[in-house]
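Onboarding guide, step 5: your first structure request.
Type a short instruction followed by the sequence, for example:

Predict the 3D structure of this protein.
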Amino acid sequence: MTESPRFPPQRAPGFLWALAAGPDGTAERIDVEHLSEALAERTWVWIHVDLLDQRARGWIQGICRLPTEVTTLIAGQDTGLALEPEGTEIHGIAPDYNVDFLRVSDSVGQFGFMASERLLVTGWRHPLAGIDAVRNALIAGARQSSGFSILAAITAAFARVAIGRLRAAETRLDRVEDQILASSTSDERTSIKEVRRLALALHRPVLAMLLMLREAEEEEEEAEAARLSALPPAGISALEEMASRLGGLDHAIRATSDRAKLLQEEIAAELADQSNRSLRALTVMTALMLPGTLVVGFFGMNTSGMPFEGPPWGTLAALGVGIILTVAFYRIMARAGATLRF
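The system replies with structure tokens like these:
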């Protein structure tokens, strides 16, 4: 890592918190004034910053002596997800769930990171669920062995939140499926679209990160075979754990998405069948009006010599003829398979 100017300890733009391994292996909060000593002495240090402060990038570069290209990648989250193992470090941009008003939202955000065996630097522009969960767990007494393992724990926390979202979506799909099997199908296409939207929003970042992790794993395996690998075993283990977590998550996302798609197609087919039945019934009703229309049209001709023209019961006789013809026509159509059921 290159030498960079160090900021005075009283100036820490964007600094949110720092944790470090204590003597007993549990995490301890570190004040910004003691960061330099912690970086030199502790087993691992986790520094987290708010990248909305444009000066945070320079401060990280100074206090941690990181190369400019690394801090540029960490701060440049507009470019999308990234993963770049380099030497004994891993840096990039990873997905995590946003937190809005003290609850986890359905939108997926990002955080920049640089991980090594003794250091983890993370930065966000919006509160994130996975980072908060790991931080709270460490403060509560959870133990981590390195910056790599903390990064893997953040990915695992993100995966747990995502699995919870997918389980809730599966519950909604169960309700829709029960309605279909009970033949009481209502138009649940809006609910299914929401589930598919959730799956799609998760699938894109998870798949992108998973592909980068697998590519990094392959590169490290090739480097290790050539005895050129610089990434320590803890880093390789973290890559494998993150890939395993996201691989399982991607499988669950695909299963939920496929199930939602099948239910959507089933509902569309059921609604189309209902529409066809209604159209058939309306067609039969229209056809049943033809005999009566013909009778009315025939007796409505303004000519002499019409049947039933003289008797006072002529109108009732014509009405009876119309009813008889309609019933006979319906019997013929019923034998052909026509029905009035909607």
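Each response can be followed by summary notes, for example: The chain has two domains: 15-270, 276-335.
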